Amino acid sequence: MSNILGIRGYDYVEFYVGSAKMVAFWYAKVLGMEITGYVGPETGTRDRTSFYLKKNNLKIVITSAVQPSCYEVLNFVNLHGDGVKRWAIEVDDVEGAFKYATQHGAVMVRRPEALEDKHGYVLEAAIRLYDDTELVYVNRDHFNHIFKPGFCEPRQDINIESEDTGILGIDHIVGNVRENEMNLWANYFNKAMSFETFVDFKPGDIGTKYSALLSKVVRSSDSVIKNPINEPYAAEKKSQIEEYIEQYHGSGVQHIALQTRDIIKTVAALRKNGLEFLSVPDTYYDMLRNRKDVQIRENMDDLQRLKILCDKESTGYLLQLFTKPIGDRPTFFFEFIQREGAEGFGKGNFQALFESIELDQKLRGNLDKKPEEILPPC
What we know:
The chain has helices at about 20-30, 70-80, 95-105, 180-190, 240-250, 265-275, 280-290, 300-305, 350-365, and strands spanning about 5-15, 35-40, 50-55, 60-65, 85-90, 110-115, 120-130, 135-140, 165-175, 195-200, 210-220, 225-235, 250-260, 310-315, 315-320, 335-340. By secondary structure, it is of the alpha+beta class. About 25% of the residues lie in helices and about 35% in strands. It has 2 domains: about 5-140, 2,3-Dihydroxybiphenyl 1,2-Dioxygenase, domain 1 (Roll); about 165-365, 2,3-Dihydroxybiphenyl 1,2-Dioxygenase, domain 1 (Roll), CATH 3.10.180. The longest helix is centred in the C-terminal third of the chain and has 15 residues, at about 350-365. The protein has an 8-stranded mixed beta sheet. An 8-stranded mixed beta sheet has the order 10-11-12-9-13-16-15-14, with helices on both faces.
């Protein structure tokens, strides 16, 4: 299938956080990433600091304010907590992709510009996505240094021991939006990015009797970019999407799915590094063993020990597991996924996943809609 915008794939994700140094060290220790770049007061940037981390094709930037004048970062973190400010896709032609997007309804954030230093230049432009999120077009064909101009080698003495997690790169990025916004944003992607709707989960497809959601998955024509969009749907209790929007104070990126070729080794390493995952009951694996349509290479006992989920599709199967929220607010989390021919998103696991999420929501006092039903403090 053609890709008229010359999209090559995911590039980087930038988080705005309260303390970039502390969060960057967490990513290095827990996800096994390497801190390879830095910008901050020591490099001439007075109001903020950023750490650039890399693991195979996964690129993450962690940014925080160091001065009260850095309103952009401070206002974001004050409202949303730690979260994704922007995610980038690499394209052949930044100006061409940006022009197409804005001519087809995209809201402009930054016009194409060249960021330049002695090592060359990087081209970037950005459009609006959700509330305070940006989608960045980037091309670094003419740059041969650390990340982009302004970044240098880390100035800190960094020696972090971590298990190798085997993370490869980004599989998909999920957005949570308000009720009746899902179609708006799906159409936004399809028009401005020349995407197509790949999956459409309708009422009753995703949820339990307590909480539910609607979801559409849009993708580039060659599937190098996949972007599910979720919105709440009426149920007896407060859905995970409602909780996210309430706690995040708006719409934004809910989670990022990271690829691995061996999820058993990946999850074992991540658990050893201290990452918390959602719980899965043993009864899930009893049912999985009884399913004759699921023929997998992995050992079922290993999946049960590590609480990894499995879903079968007509084209193959996938293995996945979701973390608990990684910050103080119950908002952003990670998913880890191994695809064996499957192109979907684990529909067969939604029941077990939602029940696990609802248990954590109840512990936080955020499952019930009525304030008087919230659990008392310790």
